[in-house]
Amino acid sequence: MADGCAVQLTAPNGVTFPQPTGLFIGGQWVKSSLGKTITSIDPSTEKPIVAVQAGSVKDIDDAVSAARRALQDPSWRDLPGTERGQLLHRLAGLVDEHKETLATIETWDNGKPYSVSLNEDMGEVAGTLRYYAGFADKVFGQVIETTADKFAYTIREPIGVCGQIIPWNYPLAMAAWKLGPALACGNTVVLKPAEQTPLSILYFANLVRQAGFPPGVVNIVNGFGAEAGKALASHEDVDKIAFTGSTATAKDIMRMAASNLKNITLETGGKSPLVVFDDAELENAVEWAHAGIMSNQGQICTATSRILVQAGIFDQFMEAFKKQVRNVSTVGDPFDSNTFQGPQVSKAQLDRIKDFISVGKAEGANLEMGGQPQATAGGKGYFIQPTVFTGVNPQMRIFQEEVFGPFVTISKFESEEEAVALCNGTQYGLGSAVFTTNLTKAHRVARRIEAGMVWINSSNDSDWRIPFGGVKQSGIGRELGEAGLEAYSTVKAIHVNMRSKL
Ligand code: ADP
Questions:
Q1: Is 227 a catalytic residue?
Q2: Number of domains, the chain
Q3: 365: domain CATH number?
Q4: What is the arrangement of strands in the sheet containing 273-276, beginning at the earlier edge strand?
Q5: Which of 249, 344, 350, 474 should be mutated for ligand 1, with most atoms under 8 A from CB?
Q6: Which residues does the entry assign to the active site, renumbered to this chain (predicted)?
Q7: Candidate list 124, 195, 227, 267, residue with the active-site label
Q8: Is ligand 1 within 6 A of the CB of residue 137?
């Protein structure tokens, strides 16, 4: 399988490309040991795109062995950080070169608008890899002053073999968030993509090889969560597991990781609030509030899915927000440049949103907009109307639980105190946003919100230079920024005795 058992595919936008379908283990393309496959579905048409190999427990085992060998091989172990950085730079350059193809695959497989895949996701992939390329020769320890009898210093070492479990909402970007810091710090990786979106990362695997990474440094094994994911999270020879996905799965992973006390980084669910105070710039707040929940089909862990508006401007906000949804949220073919919202990634996700719409109605909330599948010309695809509920109280499930779709609740509050209490009244603590023109209030509220990130006068304005992660049941540890390096390196202390005897 020299070429990854590639099949030639032509996407709906006319782009033709070789799509690898194998498992990428030890720098080679191999078939699943049990002959299992995953058929990837186009969420716009519900038609199969292609079947790819699905890894079994044995395949994960092989990938972990390959990663262990690579970790100990001088070609990687002793490679100077500067040269690791050059490999990452080369990979980022190859992503730029192939970005149209990668974006095409991403849109076909995931359903996100092509303009978003191309201009946002691929920029994020290359940018993150490049950012961490720069760090590869800047991960170092300290000399620590003690006494004349002792010379003490620390070095930063890779954690070892890292398992990385990737979600389907940003398939390549989430992989880059994890690969960048792991490789910059000299680790080796076994990466398991989500079964809903197995394709773009296989094309990317060939770029990893082309960039010149030694075999086994990056292994990519598609597979089902309950089989391949579980095998990776519970593997005794994996040193670290990094996961992005649902809070429920994260709890399972944490339990499995306990078997050999793996280092963990978990980035999980959210129900992020967006607070609009009376003194906010209304137009700005409306634009960000719309983008903060409706972008990427609402499939963003940090989506600001609970909008809280102060009573004095509530009616004005509602009117402007609904207008924004009507004007901007065009739902349809993700390859059409006028589309803002493509299909949800899968039937399961569409059904989940439909269930929450029923729950909201049954709980007595007001359905202000949407609430129906979006009819399309062919009558196929997992399209849903952008959905807005008001009249929501904090006990309702639609206020508490993550929906993961273009689904938002808008509530009214009177005081700053009440707004903070509403923000903090869920099990989650991922993102949050505050809109006000009062500088003091903005910073005061930012400190009081229980969240890993606060955006003042914006929403979901993520940046690879800035740490990303959650508190409470939204996760453990940080990705991105310099903080992201801590997740992939460990400190070793070295004590040198300068006296001849005890
Ligand atoms: P969602 O419910 O949104 O699909 P998940 O948290 O189930 O999100 O999936 C995120 C990633 O976790 C995917 O790569 C999936 O295959 C993987 N996964 C799901 N279940 C498990 C599990 N029990 N063990 C390990 N990985 C899992």
A1: no
A2: 2
A3: 3.40.309.10
A4: 366-369, 387-390, 407-413, 306-310, 273-276, 433-435, 455-456
A5: 249
A6: 267
A7: 267
A8: no
Whether residues 88 and 219 fall in one domain: yes
Q: Is 462 in the pocket of ligand 1 (CB under 6 A)?
A: no
Residues 281 and 245 grouped into a single domain: no
Mean pLDDT of successive 10-residue stretches along the chain, which has 502 residues: 81 98 98 97 98 98 98 98 98 98 98 98 98 97 96 98 98 98 98 98 98 98 98 98 98 98 98 98 98 98 98 98 98 97 98 98 98 88 98 98 98 98 98 98 98 98 97 98 97 94 80
Distance CA(116)–CA(296), nearest Å, equals 8
Is 215 touching ligand 1 by the criterion CB < 6 Å?
A: no
Q: What's the pLDDT score for residue 437?
A: 98
Are both 305 and 390 inside the same structural domain? yes
410 and 355 assigned to the same domain = yes
Q: What atom in ligand 1 is closest to the CA of residue 232?
A: 25
Beta strands 273-276 and 306-310 are parallel
Distance CA 81, CA 73 (A): 15
Q: Is the CB of 54 under 6 A from ligand 1?
A: no
- Distance between terminal CA atoms of the chain? 61
327 and 424 fall within a common domain: yes
Both 310 and 338 in a single domain? Answer: yes
Place of tokens 């359903």: 111
Q: Give nearest CA residue, ligand 1 atom 25.
A: 229
Statement to judge: residues 200 and 218 lie in one domain: yes
Range of the domain at 87: 49-268+478-490
Dihedral of CA atoms 78, 186, 238, 198 in degrees, nearest 10, equals -130
